[in-house]
Amino acid sequence: MRLSQASDFSLRVLLLLGQSETAQTVESVSRRLGLARSHVMKIVAKLGRLGLVETNRGRGGGIRLGRPADQIRVGDVVRKMEPDLGVVDCLREGGSCAFLPACALRPAMRKASEAFLESLNEQTLAALLSKTQVLGEIPPEIRRQ
Amino acid sequence: MRLSQASDFSLRVLLLLGQSETAQTVESVSRRLGLARSHVMKIVAKLGRLGLVETNRGRGGGIRLGRPADQIRVGDVVRKMEPDLGVVDCLREGGSCAFLPACALRPAMRKASEAFLESLNEQTLAALLSKTQVLGEIPPEIRRQ
DNA sequence: GAATTTATGCATTTAAGATGCATCTTTCAT
DNA sequence: ATGAAAGATGCATCTTAAATGCATAAATTC
What we know:
The structure is a homodimer.
Chain A lengths: L4 H14 L7 H8 L3 H13 L3 E4 L5 E4 L8 H8 L23 H17 L3 H6 L9 H4 L2
Antiparallel strand pairs in A: 1-2
Helix pairs in contact in A: 1-3, 1-4, 2-3, 4-5
The structure holds a DNA duplex.
């Protein structure tokens, strides 16, 4: 059971953004997190569509949090970014199971993944930030070397 | 976020076994569940090693539950069968993250997957069985045709 | 000892995700 | 206007874990 890297990286990107006031370029974010640039780009684009980050093109552009860190719940991020939250076959599109339609496993699994997300939702991004190491912002002047 | 088919199928196999007193062959179980025989074979072998099913070779052999259905907790089955329960990179062997060692995401994720398993552990196999359709046992006489 | 049934290892296939690359669009500074 | 900076998007390829199939071994019973 693992989340896609998209969900995982999303949270790290949000953490990084939450550590600085100014807009960051995707280039700088991916370099600082040590992640593939194009991968981060796609994740950020989606985060942008979801309103979780605010993106701006062109010179002086970049990305920043789309809303205050204390209004971003971790479980909600995962719920929106994770492409497939159907933990078992029968919860997915086209999935089948010999026991259906009367299988008690299905609601049990649905409930368990809700429990997972609810547990994550006990934390806001702000709460995580207060307990997480600051990566340090690279000043704009030397950022572009 | 999805479980491996190994975990998923394990539970279905256990459900099926819980519906009959007599031992079932892997052949019959896989046919009735509509799953690949060799895949079920490997799953059963592991379930056997874990003591969740009792296996017997040779004529008249087969598999049956290793202990009473009310002593099999769903979350425990998943915990034992799932090859990789590290939902994010930093929870896995060799995983890394720029925020480590001081990253609050890690304990939050660990806690969330515990919540997932605990939710499943509210159900025993017996509880599921009482709410699940009986697939119907193929009588031993015609089983071998 | 032959038939039945589980056990195991290896090799192949599959599918989802990740990655890289090329190109487009928007925005700003000069 | 023009060019550079930055995000957006589509496509094609690579990677990897999981699934599958096949062959063979081991155990058990009759």
